[in-house]
């Protein structure tokens, strides 16, 4: 058994490798034993403890990583949840046995989030992630009850979306110094595409005859990789207005004439490589300082709603998972239609 003497201190220590609950190899090192025999006994006890680990011995951190490893999550979601854990949960709960967490600790954690995070929605997201770990312990590690069950959830506060009026957009978009950024902004404003979807768009995704764009991937600004769309519903075909088709034809012709080796795999708004997210974001804020790129998507929805587009059609154009999501996000834009619907009673 690997027990060693610390020549400088005159004490003994053990260093051993073991596999955690995920099958990953980890090293355990413990120092300060006065006798070699004590170190050997401590090592043996540690090995027995690891092999016979009872569910009630699991720490919050171990359950968290078990959940991350055994749940199908997109890389972006996995990265976000891990960041949330490291920032807000690790110091408070990481070392605590999951069976020892109390309702009061859950209540205190909720209040901490509300007091210290920038927005109610961020606090709600982090607290939901915390409860995911608790529920995972109930399902897989025999946690008898949910200590967070009695804690009232953080209520969702309806977001106030910012909209750019069409005339303002058409005027301001001309201020872009970079033609690719200008064209991409126009495309996003008049299709409702998310920024990652627009960046990932390639010529092979455009059907000029049918006047459609096939949205089948997105760019992840965190990993700088192109992967599947945000949701299953996000993967769909988007219709294109005539002027957008003409704009794309002009962009394609220019790339064919100026870019060596041009082919259908080239990215529409840059060429051989996709647009740099951060560079575009900085340029966008210079032209539209009060807005975010995602507000182009909200502006598209607002533009359609104000022209009385049916909400089920809007749901399809926005590529939402269900119409309830569309109603929750843009239902207020249809307020006038309720009055129009009963106007015949005044006749």
Structural commentary:
There is one protein chain. This protein has a 3-stranded antiparallel sheet with strand order 1-2-3, covered by helices on one side. A 3-stranded antiparallel sheet has the order 4-5-8, with no helix packed on it. 25% of the residues are buried. The protein is mainly alpha-helical. The protein is elongated and about 85 Å long. It contains 14 helices and 8 strands. The longest helix has 21 residues, at 120-140.
Kindly give the count of domains: 3
Stated plainly, the CATH topology of the largest domain is called: hpI Integrase, Chain A
How would you characterize the largest beta sheet?
3 strands, antiparallel
Q: Class of the largest domain in CATH?
A: Mainly Alpha
What distance separates the N and C termini?
94 Å
Order of helices and strands: EEEHHHHHHHHEEEEEHHHHHH
Note the topology:
Layout: E1 3-6, E2 11-19, E3 25-33, H1 36-51, H2 60-69, H3 75-93, H4 103-116, H5 120-140, H6 166-172, H7 179-189, H8 195-200, E4 206-207, E5 212-215, E6 218-220, E7 225-227, E8 236-239, H9 242-258, H10 277-287, H11 295-305, H12 311-318, H13 323-330, H14 335-341
Antiparallel strand pairs: 1-2, 2-3, 4-5, 5-8, 6-7
Helix pairs in contact: 2-3, 2-5, 4-5, 12-13
List keywords for this structure.
3-stranded antiparallel sheet; DNA polymerase, domain 1; hpI Integrase, Chain A; 347 residues; mainly alpha
Brief synopsis:
The protein is mainly alpha-helical. The protein has 14 helices and eight strands.
